[in-house]
Amino acid sequence: MPSLLDAPAGLRPVERGASPRSVTPGRQRWDVGLVLGRPRSAEILAAALRRVPGITEAGANPVTGRVLVRHDVRMGAAEVGRIVRRAVALVAERAAGAEHRTPARPAPVPAPRTDIGTVARPVIAVGGGIAAGIALVKGSALSRHLVAAGGVAAATAAVLRKGWRRTTEVSRTATGSDGDEAGRHPLLEIIGPHRGRLYRAAALSVACQISEMALGTFLGWTGLVLIKGEAAPLVGLGLTTATAQLWGLAGLVAAACAAVAGLSYASTLQWRRLGQDIEHDWRGRTYRHVQHLEMEHLEGERTSRIAGALTNDVGQLGAFFAGPANDILQLATSLALLVPAFLFLAPQIAWIAFLPIPVIAWLTLDHRSRAAADYAVAGECRTRLGSQVINSLEAGATVKSFCTEEYEADRIDTLGEEVRDSSHATDRTTSRHAETVRACTTASMAGILLIGGRSVLNGTLRFEVFSPLIGLPQMLLMRMSRLGGIADQYQRTLTSYDRVQRLRALPVETDDGDMPLDPGRVRGELVLDGVTFAYPGRPAALDDLSLTVPAGQVTALVGATGSGKTTIAKLLMRFQDAESGTVRLDGRDIRGLRRHDLRHAIGFVAQDPFLFDGTLADNIRYGSFHATDEAVVQAATMAEAHPFIAALPDGYDTLSGERGAALSGGQRQRIALARAILKDSPVVILDEATSAVDNETEAAIQRTLRSFAADRTMIVIAHRLSTVRHADRIYVMEQGGVVAEQGTHDELVARQGLYASLWQLQAGDIAA
Q1: Alpha-carbon separation of residue 478 from 163, 324, 433, 442, 485 (angstroms)
Q2: What is the pLDDT of residues 556-570, one digit of tens each?
Q3: Is the CB of residue 479 less than 8 Å from the CB of residue 310?
């Protein structure tokens, strides 16, 4: 596909429309009729958009017809809109089979290359067709049977090859990658470093299938002995009487049963361990990737979607190899054994025995292709339902306060009905395919009995050969009836793989600094020099801001909401990086420092701190895992958390609940403050860390923090000015990150400026 930057500027949106749904800085959502119900067009459109410089991620949903585009914030909204419309127009033209290129900028013509397969395949096909025609017209009955069997084999190979190549192409398009890696099938990518266990499991499965085929043969010989009094193959082994042959076959059947049981147990165990290893490996690597995502992507993604990828989708990758992969291998082994056996022993019925194979293969691949949209609908509905359930539970207090319990229940019922209806659609498709496969296998068995029986009656096929072979194709065809379920799991696995890969494609934080930082030697002087920063699509939060935080002192940042106070904290922690200007710690640009070293040197307490589901002691000890119990109690005492913890029945072993739900807001803040105190960093940032505590508790915390702040740099962000009145320096911020005033509390009050007005307002002075 040509580059979107080379597309003709005059192209118009397709007739069905491409209209923006929402436009925010760095992200746009579009309604595109072209992709609605068209998974292939959705994949092509997303892949084309991802190739455009400046676009970091693109996804198209064939279920809703919506397109999500994430892009560099420096790209204008209008520019991104033009790119999306051009991409839609190009994909529409490709879908219609038309090619529109401007004469001034023709599409590049690939250099010619010699492909032996391109030349050889037509020659072989033509030659094989001529030879088959001659054999059918002038050949013997045996040659005609062989030609028919060869046609079945060729059709099977063609169908499977096309399906494999189509899957690889879809995977390449979905990921937008090129090169050798793009040509690898997703299953090969999923296996990764676990090929050794795969080979062991495959060898056991092959041996098990050979034992099953041998068991079927022995049972066929047993029937032959009962009908005709002997089985010719056993005569050569010295078993000449019917009794001896029956005893010999009993021993062979017993040995084959034991081999099948042992090998089946071992192979099943190996496949399950392979699935567990794959699941563990992918979950571990993906979760590590998620932990290192850039904050803007980690905060911008739905938590339920990320959790779903790490649990359900990763679990599906392992589940496929724990079950369906084994079925595929056993089916392939049966084919590899039965096809030569039939061609050698009974070519008369070989073609009818294997005729359903290409038909079932084609039906299966067609089912997988047609079912893609159904699975996408079902997956999207389940995601929306899960997200709504989580949101409703987390908003329990809001729901009850507005008396909307029935409203929320109705919303869940509506989403549940959508999940049920979408699941019904996939169930109908899968069941229809499974029954079609069953009909093909039944018809094949009837054909084997009819044609094979006629061959036995006219003497062209010996009954001794036909009898043991009757049951073997039935085993194969019954296995083929599982292809519907295998295709179902295969499609789910590819869908899960795509979702996991999209998550792993999100950019991670890069530790671009190479200068080490020893927290023990940090003095704590922080300088912002001409710093400018803006969130995507918003006015600058900080505009050429310069301020100094002296080492070993308490510096406060106050001001109206939106004046950039928390943004400064994020820049100091390197949750964000300044667009221009520098942020220095002890004279060193923090972008040159190792990110983890910098964060080890800074303790941070947010206004809405997060507590993990565990004991209070574990939450205080988080990040300082080797701290003693005495140190935990001391930190809790300094944070004024010890009194309420000691009053609890289980004390420090009390469970906090998910997200600290068992605690009040003030208690959560004191636990988080104790955590930062225990970390004992040379620099501490408190972002509204005591906003939820009462005045008496805050006064006690302020007294203890004075001793904690000795010889360390502390930055206090607060709206409540009583929190910062004892700070060594106070910066008063205005909108745009502008420093309106600075000084001590007494100096600023005496100046009768903005700070004095805020102080009088909080003190209840009506005139203020």
Answers
A1: 22, 15, 14, 9, 13
A2: 999 888 888 888 988
A3: no
